[in-house]
Design goal:
The chain is mainly α. It contains 9 helices and no strands. The longest helix has 19 residues.
Length: 151
């Protein structure tokens, strides 16, 4: 009878430990989502930061995304590509434009015009809050909304 109880307790502990683990088993994990298309085009060394050289070459990099050659980047041309062979899974992307698009799209129409593409290095420099010449991952993160003080 005692061994039965010990086995039952061990089984319960094992189940509790399995349920407490974060995430899914290693074979069931999805690959991380690809970086946003704009960041992927601008970040040529794939470091996650935009160096001074990458900021300077931003207009050229954005021109490379212009598939129809009209000099502008439409929403479709800037949209992230879905994974090949699979339907997108998981929650939808967050609403609102990414920080890079927000900085580049000066007229806030969701499209990058030829003038906005040409001015891309100046627009990206605005994100460089620590003025070190590059835009770090932290500087590309959306800011937290201001905390309202109680009245």
């Amino acid at each position: 009878m005692k061994t039965y109880r010990i086995h039952l307790i061990l089984a319960a502990l094992a189940m509790t430990a399995l349920n407490a683990q974060e995430g899914k088993p290693p074979g069931d994990r999805r690959p991380p989502p690809p970086p946003p298309l704009l960041l992927g085009a601008l970040d040529t060394d794939k470091s996650g930061d935009l160096s001074e050289i990458e900021i300077g070459n931003a207009s050229l990099a954005l021109d490379g995304l212009d598939k129809d050659g009209d000099g502008t980047l439409s929403r479709k041309e800037m949209a992230p590509r879905p994974p090949q062979g699979r339907k997108p899974q998981g929650p939808p992307p967050p609403k609102g434009p990414p920080v890079l698009l927000k900085a580049l799209d000066l007229d806030k129409d969701g499209v990058l015009s030829a003038a906005e593409i040409e001015d891309a290095p100046l627009s990206l420099a605005v994100l460089d809050t620590d003025e070190d010449g590059s835009v770090s991952r932290e500087e590309m993160r959306p800011g937290k909304p201001p905390v309202k003080e109680p009245v």
